[in-house]
Design a protein that fits this description.
The protein is of the alpha+beta class. It has helices at residues 2-10, 13-24, 38-52, 75-85, 104-124, 131-143, 145-168, 286-289, 313-316, 354-357, and strands spanning 57-58, 89-90, 174-188, 207-218, 225-233, 261-270, 275-284, 321-331, 335-343, 360-371, 374-385, 412-425, 429-442, 450-463, 471-483, 503-512, 517-527, 538-548.
Length: 549
């Protein structure tokens, strides 16, 4: 690096630095050695390695650059550098990306290329360097001698710090991100056992439980990601075994007795600038590939406390785990198309299982963003559940008919449709909502009992209340409800229509202690559990603490 700046003192550091920055639309502040985060420095290292490996190609004529036109304000400066010194590089797709910010590593690589070219011109004595330019450069170099010395010291510091990071980092290709969730919770009310007015009080104690996740995110060429997640926990599952209904489930419950195991294993990569592909044998979910349209409350560790209020259970939960998907950017930041095929028994060689013969979800989603503050989506999913599946239709957010419409032993197909919208009102308020419909059919030869499942939800969030990063939110909706015409369905197949309607309402306040620790107290109530009006309301109170590292 000292050699680089000695070269700069001789021939053109200021001239070529100014030319490079003006052509890139960046300011001189870009080369200021500010204290960045370790991850940002590593990313810059990767970009610099790409440059050294030849990701850019030499330009011999400015017209070779497809995104540079004579009307650009820096066109003449760029043309002059190409014609007189031949030290400008473009990207492999014949673009210059003049408005893209310039990192210090890119600047060093470009400056070194120009200096080497000028040295060759001087050595060959071809007259490629104007003597007047050399005199100007020498004068400017003397005037900025102190600044150049300071810059050299700062860059040396960056090189030293980068060497330390490379020697001590976990991996050159893998980043480790961790998360721990602590939860104090309790449920109150009468047990909802599916009969009217059971009048049996829920018997449980206040619990203190936890969950941990370790994400190993590996990148092989910069824009791809292999995610390997290790997870374990003992968070109480407030489902039908404890409260009589899955509607009371926490949105982050996980109970495997703290046996740390692989929870996710999937890979995503860009096919080109417009297409991203997903593939995975384990833990690949519908909401990984689809956008759930709930920007504030979708996270299990920092979003809604209840399972239902995180996302539309009809189209974003169900059969998942292994398969593939694709995200297609049709109009940048405006219109996108997503598609997927997922199954939960891809590793089973048993008859009626495997990748294509078992239960599955296959669907597509259209995302539309007419304005930066407005997001809209429409999702279609075709599902098939074998006769031994349980609870997948409603995403384990309700018990009874909406979860399993037909008697055991009857396979089920469904055409599911979901719509979603989220709107940001100014800088402080975010509104979101969804609606879901499923046309359900039981596969009984010659009979085909059928019905419909409906659901909807909405939430409102106030951001940065009291402290930046905090969220006050209210959410709720109608839990999945099954509707059927009993005149066309024999009782032997099940398909009883839900007599009443269950609702859920939730309130929470997320308060960040710092960038790594967040405390979220809140509560939610389930009205008419199991779609029975006579059942008493069930309440769940929670204090969740999330630690990220």
């Amino acid at each position: 690096m000292n050699r680089l700046f000695l070269q700069a003192a001789k021939v053109a550091p200021v001239l070529f630095a100014a030319s490079l920055f003006s052509a890139s639309g960046a300011s001189a502040q870009t080369i200021t050695a500010e204290k960045g985060a370790v991850n940002q420095t590593l990313e810059q290292i990767n970009n610099y390695q790409d440059l050294k490996q030849g990701s850019q190609s030499q330009v011999t004529n400015v017209n070779q650059l497809r995104d540079v036109s004579p009307t650009d304000w820096a066109y003449e400066a760029l043309r002059s550098l190409v014609d007189r010194y031949g030290c400008i590089s473009g990207f492999p797709n014949q673009t210059y990306r003049g408005n893209q910010p310039l990192s210090r590593y890119e600047f060093a690589a470009g400056l070194n290329s120009c200096l080497n070219q000028i040295e060759r011109l001087i050595a060959s004595n071809t007259g490629g360097v104007d003597p007047a330019d050399l005199e100007t450069i020498e004068r400017i170099t003397q005037e900025f001698e102190a600044e150049l010395a300071t810059l050299g010291g700062r860059v040396d510091e960056i090189e030293s710090r980068t060497a330390v990071i490379e020697d001590s980092q976990f991996s050159t290709t893998t980043k480790l991100k961790g998360e721990a969730v602590f939860a104090i919770a309790d449920a109150f009310g009468d047990f909802a056992d599916g009969i009217e007015d059971s009048d049996v009080e829920i018997e449980d104690e206040t619990t203190f439980s936890s969950r941990i996740r370790l994400n190993f995110d590996t990148s092989f060429f910069g824009k791809d990601r292999l995610r390997t997640r290790l997870a374990g926990g003992n968070i109480t599952r407030y489902d039908d075994g404890l409260t009589g209904t899955d509607s009371t489930r926490l949105g982050f419950d996980s109970n495997n007795g703290f046996n740390i195991e692989v929870a996710d294993l999937h890979y995503r990569f860009p096919l080109n600038d417009k297409v991203r592909v997903w593939v995975g044998p384990f833990g690949l979910d519908l909401d990984d590939i689809f956008d759930d349209g709930n920007p504030v409350l979708s996270s299990g560790s920092t979003g809604a406390l209840s399972r239902f209020n995180r996302r539309n259970p009809l189209v974003f939960r169900g059969v998942e785990g292994a398969g593939a998907g694709v995200n297609i950017d049709i109009i940048e930041d405006k219109l996108a198309l997503n598609a997927l095929y997922l199954t939960d028994d891809a590793d089973s060689p048993a008859p009626g299982e495997g990748l294509f013969n078992g239960s599955f979800n296959a669907g597509a989603q259209l995302e539309f963003t007419p304005f930066d503050a407005v997001g809209l989506s429409a999702t279609y999913v075709r599902s098939y559940q074998t006769s031994d599946e349980s609870g997948s239709l409603s995403g384990s957010t309700v018990d009874g008919n909406a979860s399993n419409p037909f008697n055991p032993g009857i396979a089920t197909t469904a055409n599911k449709i979901g719509v979603g919208a989220n709107v940001k009102l100014g800088e402080k308020i975010v509104l979101a909502g969804f609606g879901g419909y499923a046309d359900v059919e039981g596969l009984v030869p010659g009979e085909n009992p059928d019905g419909e499942v409906w659901t909807w939800g909405a939430n409102a969030s106030v951001l940065d209340l009291v402290k930046e990063g905090s969220v006050l939110a209210i959410a709720g909706g109608m839990l999945p409800k099954f509707i059927s015409d009993r005149d066309t369905v024999e009782a032997t197949f099940g398909a009883d229509e839900d007599p009443d309607t269950s609702y859920i309402v939730e309130a929470l306040y997320k308060f960040p202690l710092n960038d790594n620790i967040t405390i979220t107290p809140g509560a939610y109530a389930v009205f008419n559990p199991n779609q029975i009006e006579e059942n008493d309301t069930i309440y769940v109170g929670v204090v969740r603490t999330t630690l990220k590292f």
